[in-house]
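Example record used in the benchmark description.
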Amino acid sequence: MATAYVGIGANLDNPAARVHAAFSSLAEMRGTRVVKRSSLYRSEPQGYRAQPDFVNAVAQLETDLVAPELLAGLQAIEADAGRRRSFRNAPRTLDLDLLLYGAERHDEPGLVVPHPRMHERAFVLVPLLEISPDVEIPGAGPARECLRRLAGQAVERLP
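Model output (structure tokens):
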């Protein structure tokens, strides 16, 4: 079994409900169980800014799927939620990012782990640190140290 972390985000069609539904869908994946789930957080969009705020969370999984299989499962959940990839940083009904897969590193077409920008995104690091305060990002170091460098990025915990 491998420990994996998945970033969850949505900003269309009741995003909080979509994030909760994503937790349920992750729990139903073959060979996978949700070990921990973070609170929900609100964050401003990055990149393309003319869109609604996002609701974000992180799930810790235990899985016997290898990284490419897990990624395929995440993409199937996104598709079931109506995800459209119209342009980079577009609004979305659901976004599932494979953040970490154990200490493994992958850099192949369609699969880059650790997620290449996770250490630059407070909306990923805050919920990640909530459920795994001592997590290390291979190649970037302790997630807590990465977050300290992102003081200007606002992330608000939702009730």
